[in-house]
Amino acid sequence: MEIRPIISQLLRSKTAALLIAIQVALSIAILANALYIVNLRYSSSSRPSGIANENEVFTPTARSVKRPTHNEAMAQQQRDVEALRALPGVVAATWTSQMPMSRSGSTSSFSLDRKQTRQSIDLSTFFAPPGFIDTLGLRLIEGRDLTAEDMVEFDDEKDSPTKKFAKVAIITKDAADVLYPGTSAVGKTLYYGIGDDAWEMRVIGVVERLQSVIAQTGPKAEYSAIIPLLIDLTYPKYAVRAAPGQRDRLMTDAEAALRNASLTPRLIFVRSSEEDRNNRYRNERALAWMLIAVSALLLLVTASGIVGMTTLRVAQRRKQIGVRRALGARRIDILRYFITENIVITTGGIFAGVVLAVLLNQVLVSQLELPKLPIVYLAIGMGVLWLLGIAAVYGPAWRAASIPPATATRSV
Amino acid sequence: MFRYYFLLGLRNLARNPILTLLMVLTLAVGVAASISTLTILHVMSGNPIPHKSARLLVPLVDNGPVKSYVPGSQPEDRQLSYRDAVNFQKSGLGEYRTAIYDVSGAIESARPDLPVEQLNGLAVDADFFPMFEVPFLYGSAWSRAEDTSRARVVVLSRNKSEKLFGKDNPVGRTLRIFGQDFRVVGVLDTWSPVPRYPRLINSSGGGLSGEDQGYIPFHTATDLELPNNASTSCQADERDPGYQGFLNSECTWIQFWFQTKSAADRVAVADYLRGYVAEQRKLGRLMRDAPPQLFDVMEWMRYMEVVSNDAHLAVWLSFGFLLLCLVNTTGLLLAKFSARAPEVGVRRALGATRGAIFRQFLVEAGVVGLAGGVLGLVLSAASLALIAKQARTLSVVAQMDWQMLALTFVLALVASLLAGLLPTWRACQVTPALQLKSQ
Fold first, then answer.
1. Domain extent listing, chain B
2. What are B399-437's pLDDT values in tens digits?
């Protein structure tokens, strides 16, 4: 196949070819960036939270109308857990101060040394008793679980966290890697707070994952600690694991059970971990879907552009094609001519598109704190557009090849 | 002549129907994508109270511990401690002042067999209502005197009132909330500023969606030891136990607003803040070497990053898509116009100037743009409805207003004219003799 006549022909009538190349370039620039963002958002929304079989876990919250005293609250909490455990179909139940992805809870600063002026890490603090790890189905990869002896009772009316607090904690693997890189975290000292009066604690275990309540994008989502502190909460929460398939029924039953477990009226809400995840990631998913829709439309528009422009070029050169056919060119030659021509145009557009994609990404990085575009997305964009170009040109090129040689002899 | 060209353009839409349809569709899709993302950005970053946004000011002082301060950094939290908020209340500065925090409680029913109702609302000062021009359906706000006397009074939102009392006027009735008897003094008319600028840090839906169901006086709330129901940040570890210990601590959890008489009075508030920080430093507080900050409504919304980066991102990418559609339309118009070369040849031979040809074809491109605009409008409305359904927090911002409606047409028209420039120019280049000869 001779490429030189194609090039010289292209140089003669540039407009249509240039328009196709520009479309291809713009498509790659947008497509590569959009796909990358879709993947970022999608992978963050489907990250494991640490809860095993998330669709079997739900969280009832029961809040008293009048603020109970510390002792009343503790006794009520115990009654509630027992009432929940007594429900047929409940595999495990426990109280907790917060749940992953639920978007309400507390975060505290921790340090490795009292001399530090800034914290070493901020951890999402889950106050919970032994049984929390089992209920959520977290994977303990090092050390031991909490025991009843670890529990420390904390009365907000009397105690201050610099004078009385839990002595041990379980942290996540990601937090352990930040705090004690290269060594085992178990047995290490960790301070709750910063400065001289920070409270000394010991790490007794490491869980593989436990997503924070905010579930930030990025590694911070995995910075959590489980602390055996018995406190009365404004919103006492319970984590309940249902037998497979029983969750929806138990969510209704749990509400009734909690209503009956207290003599004074209470506000009761029940939410499943599945709902927590959907609520947390709703916007991420919406953006991902929007970008997928735009990408699909984009490919459609570009394909129609290539079809349209090639049809135009074929129409303009009907006579020329007829002459070539009359002079002995086979159909396959004509077909190859237009396909090769299109490959030349798309390839030009693709290279311009890669430059454009990197430029667009740089704008997005500087303006919107987006990470840098990995090369693989450029490669995907190039591949998709290249195939799209060939597929789109095939129809018009085939029609060109079907032009009978007799056209050349008509109406000269 | 314009009218004639316009009618001609309309009639020419029917010529090459497939090509025309493709053009109109491409333009419409591009315009719809841009308009729907732009609408979301426009509503998110709109001014919720344009006539006085420059007079509503948020003060912010950095009360974090000096040992963990990195010079030049922003404070860890964007709220105030109780001590600073109360001092600002007492300052007497500006026309109105209010402190705000989130309270949550239960409304007990008179009948014990009925379930309790939740009340998620705000603890505010009496000035809150005139300051944010809150409309009342029944009754009115409580008085400043009731602020200081810690009166048990409540203002309900219209929705909550209708839920509790139906359509009746509940002013004067008593509700049992937080275990206390509260007198209903007012009911708001429907009021949902977008964004919810008075209290962007809340736990009842965030900056865009959700509603405050009721309002009680700030000092009544602290008197009842109601905890903050939204974000609370405690940088220093040392504090006394109990609620009083919390109030005396440097924990930050309160939002504050000043309203000044004129925008120029901002300087006075800024001066006061600087003096305040210096004075507190003598008492051993606010030891960080960070200047106090002051924000008006628009500055505050920017500081709070109400408009998410995702909204900007969507606009960037969809305008890129519009550009692609524009190039595509250019190509299609080129195809359409080049088929009309003989017609141009005849017109030119009969005495039409190049200018006349230029005008005719540009008008025709504009007609395509108008058709694209109409279809684009339909598609934008559909895509906005889809977005509102997908992301609940976006449902209030995914609403088109007249400005955006007009912009849709302007955008479609400008896009089509831009796309039409090159093909039109090419049409003008037709040499009449050559065209006539080949016919």
1. 2-45+308-437, 56-303
2. 778 888 888 889 999 999 999 999 999 888 888 877 777
